[in-house]
Amino acid sequence: MFICILSLPLFHTFISLLTLFLGDVRVRSRAGFETERRGSHPYIDFRIFHSNSEIEVSVSARNVRRLLSFQRYLRSSRFFRGITVPNSSNILDDDYNGQAKCMLEKVGNWNFDIFLFDRLTNGNSLVSLTFHLFNLHGLIEHFQLDTMKLRRFLVMVQEDYHSQNPYHNAVHAADVTQAMHCYLKEPKLSKSLTPWDVLLSLVAAATHDLDHPGVNQPFLIKTNHYLATLYKNTSVLENHHWRSAVGLLRESGLFAHMSLENRQLMESQIGDLILATDISQQNEYLSMFRSHLDRGDLCLENANHRHFILQMALKCADICNPCRTWELSKQWSEKVTEEFFHQGDIEKKYHLGVSPLCDRQTETIANIQIGFMTYLVEPLFGEWARFSNTRLSQTMLGHLGLNKASWKGVQREQSGSGDDVDPAFEEMDSDILPQEPRLS
Ligand SMILES: [Zn+2]
């Protein structure tokens, strides 16, 4: 649709940049996808979002990429072109290792600084933290997991996140996993959760944004991306994260010793958890949560109820940035805005129409954050505190209030007035608003 507005030379440039994946390409066929024959629709190659030098396509790698995620294809194409990339899992200085280990002793603290932990582990925060949590919760022993397979699985997960994304990268996944661990420890949950519940929760948290391209669903829809077609424009990214996670689970053989029935159940329940992170479905989940709390009928001995609470917990973990200390929260705000604005820059460059919240000329971090907190975070965490009225919940609400006040202060300084809420957030029920990828 948007092509008709482009002049012919511009159209050709546009096509040459955006149609790098045409042809018969299979996507994660091992993960159970139908074979996809890409049609004549132009679609976006995720690589254009990052570095220009990465755009060249190696013909020799064409077959290999059929089985790889976009992120893993990038690495393999570098390999085929003889470009060496520093190994992120190299040996760390003992001192750094010691400090990282020390931090893990406090992995259940809400003040846990994931950015520092990522530096101390040389960019391996997701692998180190998740492996540690598997051990801490006794999952390795309980499910008789092969630790080599577990580590290999976690390395694949970490590598399938796009490190070039300012926000949706492996550090965000590690942060969400750490928050999920904090929620699993809450008294109401910890006394009723089974090892199976904990296993699903940690895997879902670690993989919930797997292979995220750094743009949102409307962007994929308006550029006719094949993922939008594959998932019929519904929870496009979340479905992709889930199916990518399933692909890695199967590839790693981590649970190959379990029965087929259990593996299928696991895949489907992980899907339920990841799909719940679609922020456009927030109102539905929130009203169900509210109704349960009003009726007081949540019974955590009931597996379905427990599963629902785990969905709510993962939703909270996913958007808990404003509930962290100001030092951590501010860094996340800057990173997510950078990702929005990057999308806006591409949309401007290719005349795609700039998405809400993505225009660096008209938006500010403060406005975006205040809208995000008011319409999404406060309602969710308010209900969570009703469910689990603990010190952690009060701490999170405390940070949320303080952080909002800080952004209001920034907003006043910038505009000379206060209380401006981004109008985009006032359209919560419409499709344009805040699509998960940009805010989770
Ligand atoms: Zn997320």
UniProtKB/TrEMBL annotation:
Keywords: cAMP, Hydrolase, Metal-binding, Signal
Catalytic activity from the UniProt record: 3',5'-cyclic AMP + H2O = AMP + H(+)
Any one GO molecular function term: 3',5'-cyclic-AMP phosphodiesterase activity
Location of the region described as Disordered in the Swiss-Prot/TrEMBL record: 408-440
Cofactor binding note: Binds 2 divalent metal cations per subunit. Site 1 may preferentially bind zinc ions, while site 2 has a preference for magnesium and/or manganese ions.
Pfam family, one: PDEase_I
Active site (record annotation): 168 (proton donor)
Superkingdom of origin organism: Eukaryota
Ligand binding (AMP): 168-172, 209, 318, 369
Pathway(s) per entry: Purine metabolism; 3',5'-cyclic AMP degradation; AMP from 3',5'-cyclic AMP: step 1/1
Cofactor: a divalent metal cation
Residue stretches making up the PDEase domain: 92-414
Compositionally skewed regions (Acidic residues) per UniProt: 419-430
Similarity section: Belongs to the cyclic nucleotide phosphodiesterase family. PDE7 subfamily.
Listed name of the protein: Phosphodiesterase
Species: Buteo japonicus
Origin organism lineage: Eukaryota, Metazoa, Chordata, Craniata, Vertebrata
